[in-house]
Q: What sequence folds into this?
């Protein structure tokens, strides 16, 4: 049920037919994807705790109703995924359509609609996961069923997988699959979440395909101090004060800039001024050039800057004091670190020590989960050529640009486990662009336009047809 106040009220967005696709087909896929996404959103898979097996069971039933049989797989029992294979019976390449079942938590009082209602209204499907990424669980499913209903791929195999535990990554999910059941998911190509958001620039619609991503290293800095009564404010050894120095040092640290292909391609595509573009590609001048770019176009600067190396983000501070009038002996500062492909745990530790050199604090470092190095797939490739050609066919003013993700996706596990696999992140929108879509991810009032949802299904169906030929 909707709240009595603050009903969704979206300005109606003009929605045009999708070139090259029968409007009746578009309408049919729009209804089917919206209905399935609504059902999936109503299954609360907030991670933690996840409980994603309920989505896997739902997809097992959904495909069975269409005469297709898949497999629920994964550990522990309540954190399973679902995998289904449509085989042509003829030699050829294989393509995996990948998406994750879990979502980040949602604070219901902050939303205009109940976040797990799956409401379909005003041309949108509303709810947690509508953009990250149950939309692809639904769109990929509809695309897979349509390929199968048309007789299957012309050659090779199409594999569908929805997996657990992407948002936290501490239990299993895709990582468990590639280690324990590679027979199910080792394919030549993988298409996954990320990318597909477009910018309108200079009369062109620029779409971003992500061919790689930065690595992730999360850690706690344990800042130690001396206990004592807080009525002595000048007492030395206050761990809270020391932790504040640590946070400030990390936030203000300027790590060495690295200019590589992950940023060079984006600079070449997005920055029109030749002199500024040249300075952005030179490590000696890139930092000042980024500041100038931010003054000109903060959106473009925000897209490019994270690709220049380490990023330290303190996110949580906790004290072991239970009384406000007592100095704690321990303060934990949790930090999220992202680094370029090729950097490892030792380099992160070295950079932390450099950032905190001279800071008056007694600290130790504890890793939170495994350090995951960044990686990337070759670009261009036959896969990217099929994606670009399919996009151009249905969005005539589209131009495809390559970039690396500054976040983390399950594509990382596939590239690491299967060096011969090309994994790209791409799920295109056609109605709403980068400025409308990206602020809603992990935010309140998450929603996707029903035509964008249908286009994601129809697009990947046609990519599969073009690739598996």
A:
């Amino acid at each position: 049920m909707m709240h009595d106040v603050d009903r969704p009220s979206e300005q109606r967005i003009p929605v045009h037919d999708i070139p090259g696709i029968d409007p009746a087909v578009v309408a049919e896929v729009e209804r089917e994807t919206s209905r399935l996404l609504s059902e999936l959103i109503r299954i609360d898979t907030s991670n933690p705790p996840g409980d994603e097996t309920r989505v896997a069971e739902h997809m097992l039933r959904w495909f069975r109703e269409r005469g297709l049989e898949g497999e629920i797989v994964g550990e522990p029992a309540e954190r399973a995924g679902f995998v289904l294979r449509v085989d042509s019976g003829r030699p050829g390449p294989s393509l995996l359509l990948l998406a994750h079942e879990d979502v980040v938590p949602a604070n219901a009082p902050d939303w205009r609609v109940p976040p797990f209602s799956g409401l379909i209204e005003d041309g949108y499907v509303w709810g947690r996961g509508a953009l990250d990424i149950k939309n692809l669980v639904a769109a990929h499913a509809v695309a897979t069923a349509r390929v199968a209903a048309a007789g299957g791929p012309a050659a090779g195999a199409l594999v569908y997988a929805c997996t657990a535990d992407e948002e936290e990554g501490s239990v299993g999910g895709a990582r468990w699959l590639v280690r324990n059941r590679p027979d199910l998911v080792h394919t030549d190509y993988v298409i996954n979440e990320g990318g597909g958001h477009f910018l309108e620039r200079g009369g062109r619609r620029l779409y971003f395909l992500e061919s790689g991503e930065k690595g992730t290293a999360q850690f706690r800095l344990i800042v130690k101090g001396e206990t004592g009564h807080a009525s002595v404010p000048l007492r030395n050894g206050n761990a809270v004060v020391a932790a504040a120095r640590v946070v400030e040092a990390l936030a203000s640290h300027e790590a060495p800039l690295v200019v590589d292909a992950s940023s060079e391609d984006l600079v070449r595509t997005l920055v029109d001024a030749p002199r500024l573009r040249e300075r952005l590609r030179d490590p000696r001048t890139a930092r000042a050039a980024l500041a100038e770019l931010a003054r000109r176009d903060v959106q473009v600067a925000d897209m490019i800057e994270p690709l220049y190396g380490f990023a330290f983000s303190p996110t949580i501070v906790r004290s072991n004091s239970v009384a406000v009038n007592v100095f704690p002996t321990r303060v934990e500062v949790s930090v999220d670190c992202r680094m370029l492909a090729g950097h490892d745990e030792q380099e992160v530790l070295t950079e932390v020590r450099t950032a905190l050199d001279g800071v008056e604090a007694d600290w130790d470092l504890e890793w939170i989960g495994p350090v995951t190095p960044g990686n990337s797939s070759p670009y261009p490739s036959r896969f990217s050529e099929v994606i670009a050609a399919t996009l151009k066919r249905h969005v005539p003013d589209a131009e495809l640009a390559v970039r690396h993700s500054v976040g983390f996706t399950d594509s990382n596990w596939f590239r690491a486990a299967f060096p011969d696999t090309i994994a790209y992140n791409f799920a295109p929108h056609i109605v709403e662009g980068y400025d409308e879509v990206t602020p809603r991810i992990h935010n309140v009032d998450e929603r996707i336009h029903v035509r964008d949802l249908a286009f994601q299904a129809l697009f990947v169906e046609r990519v599969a047809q073009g690739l598996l030929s």
Notes: The CA atoms of residues 153 and 296 lie 48 Å apart. Residues 1-6 have pLDDT under 50 and may be disordered. The radius of gyration is 24 Å. The first helix runs from residue 23 to 41.
